[in-house]
Amino acid sequence: MDNASLPEQPSQKSVEKKQGDKQSNEASQPKAPQEVPHLEGHRQPSAQGVSQSEGAKQKNSKLDKTVAPQPTVAPKPIKAPILFTGEIPVAVRESVETPSRFPPKRIMLLLGLLGVGAIALLLGGWVALQLRQAQSQVTNPTTSPTTGTPMPQSTATTAPDGTLLGHYPYNVAPLSELQAIVPDGSIKLRKAAANAYMTMSAAARADGVNLTPISGFRTLEDQQSLFFDVKAERGQVATKRAEVSAPPGYSEHHTGYAIDVGDGSVPATNLSQTFEKTAAFKWLQANAAHYNFEISFTKGNKQGVSYEPWHWRFVGDRDSLETFYKARGK
Ligand SMILES: [Zn+2]
After folding, report:
1. How far is the CA of 215 from the centre of ligand 1 (A)?
2. Does the model's pTM come out above 0.70?
3. 191 and 313: one domain?
4. Number of domains in the chain
5. Where are the beta strands (DSSP E) in the chain?
């Protein structure tokens, strides 16, 4: 606060000088001397009103002494306008031109208030963060926070439920657990799922429906290129890409329980929402549950993943059930 008093000295002088200018203007009036006290009588309170300081009063009294002896030229019209031209511009000049004695104090006050506000904000944010962390440790993570400030981070990054861009994390199935479901061995599922799929596919064929496997188990590398390479190729932003493909580490295909199914009679509908119009889809809808397969991404699913009528997952043993249901909410 010491430095606040420093600028006062020069500014006082500059104000004084201006008062002097004003003085000479007023003094230049070709007027009767008794009018001057009248003017001063008006000016004095207003100077106080503007400055509210002893310095201003002192100046005015100094000026009073110098009024009389300077009858310079500069003619001015009448009294009322003089009051205005004499006083208002001074007030304006004082507040605008000179870094007079008020701004430093006001600036210091303002900075102080801003500082206090910033500290309060930081403290508030820190407290909210602590509350949120404490809460997530104590309560069930699936329940959404009921108190505290909503934090702006959870949507685009890993959410409290462990999802990334709407996809749950999955472990990659051990290769020893996998079994081929096509003659060339290029498409594999976990053994239990592979057996169930083969049985289901045979049953569909018996009904005249041609289920065709398109994609089963995927490694992290498979998903890496599916997500990022295609994303780059199509110029998609991550959020948009995630609507139709999971980031590596977050695909149900890692588990060996998920399979993309096409209709061998209508390959043009592969991996397209038009697949839902095919006989294969209708057959799956009616029968897949008997083989412990279910659709993963239904219309309007809560994960925000786009509707995938071709993507089915096996939930026919304890491990697959735990994989898709128990892990949720972590
Ligand atoms: Zn899929």
Report:
1. 7
2. no
3. yes
4. 2
5. 178-180, 188-190, 211-215, 258-263, 293-295, 311-314
